[in-house]
Design a protein that fits this description.
Distance between the termini: 14 Å
CATH class of the largest domain: Alpha Beta
CATH topology of the largest domain: Nucleoside Triphosphate Pyrophosphohydrolase
Strand content: 25-35%
Radius of gyration: 21 Å
Number of domains: 2
Structural class: alpha+beta
CATH superfamily of the largest domain: Nucleoside Triphosphate Pyrophosphohydrolase
Number of helices: 7
Length: 297
């Protein structure tokens, strides 16, 4: 089964991550000059310019004693400028839906800016929430240009985390299983999703999560696409599966509703005139539904 080939929101950053520079203090220091750019943020919120693009300043705009994270090199104009972001005083692990203003701002960013902001947000949010060592509790300090933190006492090294999450379509006789989570707006449906747990494969995680939430057994799990999701730092692994039957036993501790939808209902909802409110276009669930419509055309 063919994987999804279309664009994915938060992917495709225009920056060169320049890993070889991160560990070279001298080389990194040489890039912290008048040409270097600092991403303008209000805490973790993007600060847009008059054209609706990400705002940039110089390193002189960084708060005093702020930790600076090296995002990468910008070569878009033929030159080479280092890009940085300052770690805010506090992080934010709340769900994306908890901040509608943020989503409204992101909805207007072009794909490159959205990818750059998403990566920067995940990274500096991790720094803000990991200032102490998980091994001994002592304070940590930034290292490797912001792609590592080192403990000041036990020398343990800590790295930005990415949590794998399966998000999946379950299909049965030409219909898709979609669900509405607890606390979601009435009428909003999306693909089921859940974290991959220690000791299981992606395929096992898909089967377990679908069964736990819906009571349905699935098989023939295939990969479709992935998406970095900076709320705060997930890797969404989009999959498709086939269900053995359509009898639902809903886990009411997590899900408000789970229903089966026909191809016509999914198509109409993605077009804004169907029986449910589809996921926003920047969510991989929307990409998965579009892929399924193309697959079943």
């Amino acid at each position: 089964m063919a994987a999804y080939k279309g664009p994915i929101a938060f992917a495709g950053s225009p920056l060169d991550r320049a890993d070889n520079i991160r560990a070279d203090r001298e080389a990194l220091g040489a890039l912290m000059n008048w040409k270097a750019r600092l991403l303008k943020l209000d805490a973790l919120m993007p600060d847009l310019d008059e054209n609706g693009r990400l705002g940039w300043g110089s390193l002189a705009d960084a708060p005093e004693d702020a930790e600076l994270v090296f995002l990468g090199l910008d070569r878009s104009d033929g030159g080479e400028r280092a890009c940085f972001a300052a770690v805010p005083p506090q992080g934010d692990a709340s769900p994306r839906m908890a901040n509608p203003r943020l989503w409204a701002l992101m909805a207007n960013l072009d794909p490159g800016d959205l990818a750059l902001y998403g990566g920067a947000r995940s990274l500096i949010d991790w720094h803000a929430r990991h200032r102490f060592c998980a091994q001994c509790g002592a304070g940590t300090r930034i290292a490797k240009g912001g792609w590592q933190r080192d403990c000041s006492e036990c020398s343990a090294q800590h790295f930005p985390r990415t949590d794998p999450v399966t998000i999946m379509l379950a299909e049965y006789e030409g219909r898709l299983m979609l669900g509405r989570g607890k606390g979601w707006p009435e009428g909003s449906f999306s693909a089921l999703a859940g974290f991959v747990e220690p000791g299981e494969t992606i395929e096992e995680a898909v089967a377990r999560e679908v069964f736990e939430e819906s009571g349905v057994r699935v098989r023939d799990v295939t990969y479709v696409a992935s998406q970095p999701w900076p709320f705060p730092s997930q890797m969404m692994i989009g999959c498709h599966s086939y269900a053995d039957d359509d009898a639902l036993v809903i886990d009411e501790t997590e899900m408000a509703e789970i229903r089966w939808f026909t191809r016509d209902e999914v198509a109409a909802s993605l077009g804004g005139n169907g029986p449910f409110r589809a996921p926003p276009k920047h969510a991989i669930a929307c990409n998965l539904m579009q892929w399924w419509l193309e697959k079943t055309a």
